[in-house]
Design brief:
By secondary structure, this protein is of the alpha+beta class. Helix content is 33%, strand content 26%. It is built from five helices and six strands. A six-stranded antiparallel beta barrel has the order 1-2-3-6-5-4. Strand 1 and strand 2 form a beta hairpin.
């Protein structure tokens, strides 16, 4: 019978790096998450899903069909931001392609331009999002005590957009 040798094929530095990094939970649209989204969509539309939750609607990049998803916004220094805690989801790709999103909360609707933030611009927004949204912590490979460099490394995995009112 073949036995694995006690020596690993990985270098010790590689092994150390793997052990030092937390395992980040991959986003999967599970049946529970689908149900949660199904429940939150009408609540967000009615303005009853919490003070930061809005229904974000954007045109599909291929079909032009309107797609909606609940999002939690961050208000910081008089600006509003949308963060993709689960990574580059379809709403992110569609917002990039369209250049705009529509936010709905109760009877209020507004169409806003989106400006994607680069890594350095995104760091304070991501930190604030992380601080306020505990439910998404398992999708981040950093914590509140992490260094600015760690957050900068994490930023590309969580696109962030500044939402700008049209002129």
């Amino acid at each position: 019978m073949w036995r694995r040798s006690t020596e690993s094929s990985y270098s010790s530095a590689s092994r150390r790096r793997r052990l030092q990094r937390r395992v980040v939970k991959p986003y999967r649209l599970s049946p529970a998450r689908r149900l949660l989204n199904l429940l939150f969509r009408p609540l967000a539309r009615l303005g009853l899903a919490g003070p930061r939750t809005h229904l974000l609607t954007v045109a599909g990049r291929r079909t032009g069909r309107l797609w909606s998803t609940p999002v939690s916004l961050i208000d910081l220094d008089g600006e509003r931001y949308a963060v993709a805690p689960y990574g580059e989801r379809n709403w992110v790709k569609n917002a990039r392609a369209a250049g705009w999103v529509e936010l709905r909360r109760g009877r209020a609707r507004e169409r806003l331009a989106v400006v994607e933030l680069d890594g350095e611009q995104a760091v304070p927004i991501l930190r604030e999002y992380y601080r306020r949204s505990r439910v998404t912590h398992s999708f981040f490979d950093v914590g509140l005590a992490s260094s600015a460099e760690d957050w900068l490394e994490e930023a590309p995995r969580h696109p962030a957009f500044r939402l700008v009112r049209g002129e």
